Structure formats: structure tokens, C-alpha cells
Amino acid sequence: MTETTESTESTEANGQQLSLSTDAAKNLATTTKTAPQMQEITSRWLLKLLPWVQTSGGVFRVNRRLTYTLGDGRITFTTSGADVRVIPAELTELHQLRGFSDAEVLQSLADGFSQREYEAGEEIVREGAPLDQLVLIAHGRVSKTGRGAYDDEQNLGVLADGDHFGEEVLGEPGQWAFTAKAKTACTVLTLSRPNLQAVLDRSPALRAHLRSTRDAEGRSQNAYGEAAIELAAGHHGEPALPGTFVDYELTPREYELSVAQTVLRVHSRVSDLYNQPMNQLDQQLRLTVEALRERQEHELINSREFGLLHNADFSQRIRTRGGAPTPDDLDDLLSTVWKEPAFFLAHPQAIAAIGRECSKRGIYPQASEVNGHRIPAWRGVPIFPCNKVPITGARTTSILLMRTGHENQGVVGLHQTGIPDEYQPSLSVRFMNINEKAVISYLVTAYFSAAVLVPDALGILEDVALGS
Fold it and tell me: Fewest CB within a 10 Å sphere: which of 85, 146, 242, 278?
């Protein structure tokens, strides 16, 4: 007995194996596997939250009341070294020059601008001074302030690259209704009244255009620029009631369904033999569809044709007061979409920046519960994350706020269900062929678009600084 014990101890000391190793045992065990994982998959809140409208025929026409063009677009410049010049054709973005096409006169106006540089804090125009120049902001940020009813200073907003003020110089003489100061170092182009008058004296066409523009402004319209519907209220006796009709836009905008496609290829040998416990074709198709849906959400936000960032009305775009997204900025954004706002949409880093700014002020907003998810919110409006909202090289981004639904005259998604070989709503998987190498091809297609039914359904807070 003593010899056996000594032998066992000697065996263990020599490092000899006493039982089956785990490496060998694994050959007899069934491995538990996951389906293929993909980091690109996100929550895709925009696709879930947008109401989708069936778009038969592939075209969605948005009919609106006749709206007079406000011409409040932004102006583009060219640079040569430190010299900045306005592109003459871009001057037609000014309301009073909208539709004016005389290139020679526009060139004369562009030549009349002078370049000026301002340091941060320097005053550009003063409230109450004669309005004697048109100012175009080529680079930098400018704050507008005015005096309130009790002589207190009021913030009237922030202007930046491409914005302008003082367009009234093209009309009747007046005074500045606000003070404009440079928040950062600014480069601006100014057109003085004498330089403008010199061009007017040489151009009867320009004088006639400005006169017709002023006449058009006298037409009856509501606060949104729509042709007014004449009504009478609160009258006594038997006055003659006004006659009216609702005028429509003659050329309403039409949205065509966009498409995202790819060709999925699977070798027949793989599809035939390697399907346990998971079907290879199903997994290939699942991940392909996920990538296609991610691209769909990206296009809904970033497409220059129908993307929300590029289709928001200029009057619905505002800028942050100081760069970082403060509670005041979110309130300003809510004021642009004040009729039944549905949700904010922002990059996760922008949501983090909002949280930092709230924490600095000792503000801790309550979260909102949406379909079992705890979502950060502001004033009860949830802020959903979306990594498709771009971040610029200067680490700035945008925050979107929208009203949704056809009944609410909001933002809607467009698709067409019932298409041939439909795999998901408005997404089809169509067998194409098997080539001479036994590779099977499937065409995977998604049709989609988005429409903003009225301008005030979508607001954007721009130039949101994310910080370090």
C-alpha cells in the first residue's frame, strides 16, 4: 500500500496525464454558436419613428397653398488667398433680387462689395444708426441684439457663414433695428448705399425689378408667406362679406422613390452543404438587409435630393448661441417646431454634449419611456440617437427636431409595399441567375424617400460644437 501511494505521487510529479484532456473532449462536444454578429447594426430610430406612406406609382406630390418666395437662402463666396468675393449669381438669394437674371448688373453689384475684418467683440452695426449698407458674412459668427420694451438687451439670434443682413438698403432708407457684433473673428463683405445707387443709376432693369418686388410685397399674405384667405369676423349689421378662394402652387414638388440595391452572391456548394444549424443563405441575406436598412437611414438624413438635412427650410435653421448645445438652444429649436413636436434626432456625441451643458447648470431632465426604452428628453420631447447625423472635421454637428405624420402636416417616409418578390415592406429579394462557376446571385432592392409636407414640420440646430 505504501508502494502504490509512492508510485501515484511519483506519476503526478512526473507530469503524466491522469484523465481525458479538455482539448480532446471538445472534439466530441457540440459547440454552441451565435448567428453572425455585425457592429454596423444600430437602433435605426428614424426608420421606426417615421410614419410610412404608401407611394403608388413611385411618385409623391406635395400640394400646398400658394406661397410667395421669401428668398432667404444663403450666399456662397469664392476665395483667393485672403481675398473673398461674392459669386454674382448668388446675390439672387436675396429676397429683393430673387429672379433677377441680368448677369452684367449682378457682376456690377458684386464688384461694389468691400471686404472688412472684425475681431471678436467688435461692433459691425449699431441699433438706431442709419441703415446704409448690405452685409454678407463670409466667415465667422455674428450676434444680433436689440432693446426690449423695458430697455433690456434681447438676444435676436446668431448669424454665420453665408448669412446676411441689411437687405432693406435695397428699398427705402431706414435705421438699424438691432446691433450686430462679431462673436468670433469675422470676414464680411459690405455694399454701401453710394455703390448701390451707382449701379441703380446705370440699370433701369434693376430699378424696375426692385419696384416690382416691393409691389408684390403689398399683396395680401399671411405670416407664413401664403396667399391670404380673406375673412371677416366680429362685424355688426349687414356689411358686405369679402369673397375669397384658396390658391394653390402651380408647380408642386414631387418626390420620387429612391433606391438602394446590391447583388448578393452565394456559392451553390455553400448553400447546399453548410446549412446546419443555421441556413447560410438566410444569414447572408439577413446581414445584407441590415446593411441596406442602415444605408436607407443614412440617405433619409444626408441625401441632397430628399434628405432631411438638405430639405429643411432656411427659415427653420437656427444656430447655437455659443457653440455648445445649451438648454436655451434646445428651447429655440422647439420654437421652430412648436406645433406638436414629435422627437429630436441627434448624434450620440451631441446628446452627450447636451448632457454636459445641462449638468453645468444643475439641470437634470427627466427621461422619456418609448416602447420600453428609456430615452433622454427635453421638455418632454424625446431625443433619439442616430449616428448618421454627420460630424464635421471641426467637430460640429446638427440636431433635428420634427413633427411627423400626414394628418399633422409633418415629416413622412415614403415607400411602396406589394412589390414583386417582396421580402420586407418595400424591400425585395429577386433571384437573378446561376453563373458558370455555380455562384447564385440575388438582387436585393429597397425603395424609399421622405417628404416634409410643410416647412415648419422640420427644424435644425446647426453648428453644434461637441467640445473636446
Answer: 242
Question: How far is it, in rounded angstroms, from Cα 434 to Cα 431?
Answer: 9
CA 384 to chain centre: 14
What is the structure's pLDDT at 6? 52
pLDDT along the chain (468 residues), means of 10: 50 72 89 91 95 94 74 73 85 86 90 92 91 91 87 86 88 87 90 91 90 69 73 81 80 92 95 90 95 97 93 87 92 95 96 94 90 92 96 93 95 96 96 95 97 94 87
3-state secondary structure the chain: CHHHHHHHHHHHHCCCCCCCCHHHHHHHCCCCCCCCCCCCCCCCHHHHHCCEEECHHHEEEECCECECCCCCCCCCEEEECCEEEECHHHHHHCHHHCCCCCHHHHHHHHHCCEEEEECCCCEEECCCCECCEEEEEEECCEEEEEECCCCCEEEEEEECCCCEECHHHHCCCCECCCEEEECCCEEEEEEEHHHHHHHHHHCHHHHHHHHHHHHHHCCCECCCCEECCCCCCCCCCCCCCCCCCCCECCCCEEEECEEEEEEEEEEHHHHHHCCCCCCHHHHHHHHHHHHHHHHHHHHHHHCCCCCHHHHCCHHHEEECCCCCCCHHHHHHHHHHCCCCCCEEEECHHHHHHHHHHHHHCCCCCCCEEECCEEECEECCEEEEECCCCCCCCCCEEEEEEECECCCCCCEEEEECCCCCCEEECCEEEEEEEECCCCEEEEEEEEEEEEEECCHHHEEEEEEEECCC
Q: In this structure, which amino acid lies at residue 363?
A: I
282 DSSP β-pair partners:
none
Contacts of 46 (CB under 8 A, 6+ apart): 297, 300, 301, 345, 384, 386, 388
Count CB neighbours of 439 within 10 A.
Answer: 15
Distances (CA, A) of 1 to 5, 10, 74, 150, 189: 6, 14, 99, 107, 105
Q: Is 389:351 a contact under the CB 8 Å cutoff?
A: no
- Specify whether the CB–CB gap between 404 and 458 falls below 8 A: no
At position 305, the amino acid (one-letter code) is E
Grid coordinates belonging to 149: 420694451
Strand partners, 459: 401
The b/e string for 311-323 (b: 16+ C-beta within 10 A; e otherwise) is bbbeebbbbbbeb
pLDDT at 101: 85
